[in-house]
């Protein structure tokens, strides 16, 4: 099974030209309402994957998570259910689908987010990968791919249940257009691992790299920071002419 960036880069050469991309704006609030005069691509605790030309989530598109086998569906659905419910409440039309054989040489069917497994999909032990595909007509999220490192399951990589839950949802959010949210919080000129905003209880966004999110029974759920990012991607849609 291949790593993903190679074919995604080749498959998505169309779309809005770099000169036509609106300049990123920062959301005016952190966990409350989102207001801006144009599309927003970065805010407190979240960032859009504009490098993959994903600028919005369609509020009318049905997004469906699929799996290559029933065994993998049975494995992953329990870890995704809570986050899928949150995303639907936020306005994403997202459902757990059935079995579908992925074709990594091209983009998935429209609206499909295809989960699979691979040994070290980014070439580094313990790391998984999630990438969005963009609609070349309007730069909304088309669908995407998620490859989970098989080392989590075969005993060669030790991962806690909390980190596993957060990782599986973290990769889903990548496929929906969210990037890592790390930022230079201490102004030392370096954006380090784990360096990101925290709430008053010390909770970091689930999109923190390499591991963020709730560290208790809420693991695998999106934080308000992450949900703000999803809501803004949805809010960007009508601004960019996407229904």
Structure description:
With 243 residues, the chain is an alpha/beta fold. It has helices at residues 5-11, 70-90, 151-154, 161-175, 224-239, and strands spanning 42-43, 46-47, 62-67, 93-99, 112-118, 129-134, 141-149. The protein is globular. The N and C termini lie far apart (34 Å). Residues 1-34 have low confidence and may be disordered.
Kindly list the characteristics that best describe this protein:
26% helix; 243 residues; 7 strands; two-stranded antiparallel sheet; disordered N terminus; globular; alpha/beta
**How far from one another are the termini?**
34 Å
If strands are numbered along the chain, what order do they take across the biggest sheet?
A: 4-3-5-7-6
Regions with little confidence, pLDDT below 50 for 5+ residues:
1-34
User: How many strand units?
Assistant: 7
Overall form:
globular
Structural class: alpha/beta
User: Which range best describes the helical content: under 10%, 10-25%, 25-40%, 40-55%, 55-70% or over 70%?
Assistant: 25-40%
Can you give the mean pLDDT? 88
Query: Helix count?
Result: 5
Cα Rg = 17 Å
Largest beta-sheet details: 5 strands, mixed
Beta content comes to 15-25%
Q: Provide the succession of SSEs.
A: HEEEHEEEEHHH
Secondary structure elements and pairings:
Elements: H1 5-11, E1 42-43, E2 46-47, E3 62-67, H2 70-90, E4 93-99, E5 112-118, E6 129-134, E7 141-149, H3 151-154, H4 161-175, H5 224-239
Parallel strand pairs: 3-4, 3-5, 5-7
Antiparallel strand pairs: 1-2, 6-7
């Amino acid at each position: 099974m291949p790593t993903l960036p190679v074919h995604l880069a080749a498959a998505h050469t169309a779309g809005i030209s770099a000169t036509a991309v609106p300049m990123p704006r920062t959301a005016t609030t952190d966990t409350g309402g989102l207001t801006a005069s144009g599309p927003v691509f970065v805010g407190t605790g979240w960032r859009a994957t504009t490098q993959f030309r994903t600028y919005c989530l369609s509020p009318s598109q049905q997004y469906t998570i699929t799996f290559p086998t029933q065994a993998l569906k049975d494995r992953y659905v329990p870890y995704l259910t809570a986050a899928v419910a949150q995303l639907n409440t936020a306005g994403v039309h997202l459902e757990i689908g059935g079995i579908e054989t992925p074709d990594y040489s091209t983009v998935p069917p429209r609206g499909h987010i295809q989960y699979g497994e691979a040994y070290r999909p980014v070439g580094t032990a313990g790391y998984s990968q999630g990438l969005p595909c963009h609609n070349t007509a309007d730069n909304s999220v088309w669908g995407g791919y998620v490859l989970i490192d098989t080392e989590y399951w075969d005993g060669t990589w030790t991962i806690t249940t909390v980190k596993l839950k957060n990782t599986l949802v973290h990769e889903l959010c990548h496929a929906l257009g969210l990037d890592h949210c790390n930022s230079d919080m201490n102004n030392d000129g370096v954006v380090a691992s784990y360096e990101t905003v925290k709430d008053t209880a010390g909770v970091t966004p689930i999109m923190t790299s390499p591991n963020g999110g709730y560290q208790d029974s809420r693991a695998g759920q999106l934080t308000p920071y992450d949900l703000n990012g999803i809501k803004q991607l949805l809010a960007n849609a009508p601004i960019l002419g996407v229904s």
